[in-house]
Amino acid sequence: MPEVKTTELLRTSQSWDGARIPDFPRENAEIVSMRYEFPPGQKLGWHHHDVINFGVVQQGELTIIDIHGNVKVAHAGEALVEMVGTIHHGENNGPENVVLTMFYVIPKGEPISVAHPEIPQE
User: Fold this and answer.
1) Are strands 98-107 and 29-38 parallel, antiparallel or unpaired?
2) What is the pTM of this model?
3) Domains in the chain and their CATH numbers?
């Protein structure tokens, strides 16, 4: 019988832009998991996170752009740690749906992100 295979996808103390992740909340924390599906050409609006969050791109290529113009392209199978406190958005510039599963570690009752509708999408 085949054995269970384990593969560490990511171990880091930094987000994709190199910033140190904040200290983990020790009391009254909860974990939230979200699945996002981006059709080709779609963008998720500008937002930022005040909480630690990380995930895995399960399908497609997700382009993440921060407010300063830094770009990260995450490919299917790639794990990533999102930025905390930096405004950014994600978009699908490829030909297939992007499927992304994210995990958020938050103080209980806090939002996972803060929208910035005042910033126009390009």
Assistant:
1) antiparallel
2) 0.88
3) 29-115 (2.60.120.10)
